[in-house]
Amino acid sequence: MEQTALRPKPMPGQDPGGGAASGAPVRRPHVARRRARRLRTALFALFTGTLLVLSGVGLGTAGVTAVGMRGLADLQRQVRTPGAPAGAAHSAPSPPPTPAMASPAPAAATLGLEAVDAEKTGALVVGVHVPGPGYTAGLVRGDVVLALDRTRVGSAADLARAVAHARPGARVILTIRHRSGGYQQLTAVPGVVT
Questions:
Q1: Is the overall model pTM greater than 0.90, yes or no?
Q2: Which of 41, 85, 90, 168 suits a disulfide with 109, CB 3.0-4.6 Å?
């Protein structure tokens, strides 16, 4: 019997004669390709995730830049010795810790942000740690910090000194200039560096 335009096409799995399919399975090559593609994608994702975890990069922090620990230690040393000249902090390495020096250092305040010198005056915020006191206060990347309480901030070093002198847990008022040019005062509560 010939098929005409008025006769429906057979259902999948049925032979063209209109009867049910015989015991022979129907070949579907597209299914095998799809399964192979899924397996390949799953293995690649597992390999990449394992590689990231073993290399020390958490899956949530794959796109975050890290500040070098040596640079952070140098900055903290400069902040703790405000009367010393700028080069004095780098002139001699710190002595190795002894059992008598093992007492914990006093807690230092932090706003949880990274800043560089702005073009004119102030400290340009280039990174805000989430969660952190700066993020909670409403600071965003691109803001320029002009004052912390009544202390004017002329550079990023001035901001670091002012934050180091702030008491952790006490509210401070930040005067900032947004990227759009507007000025605002934000209240922040510096945290503790642990």
A1: no
A2: 168
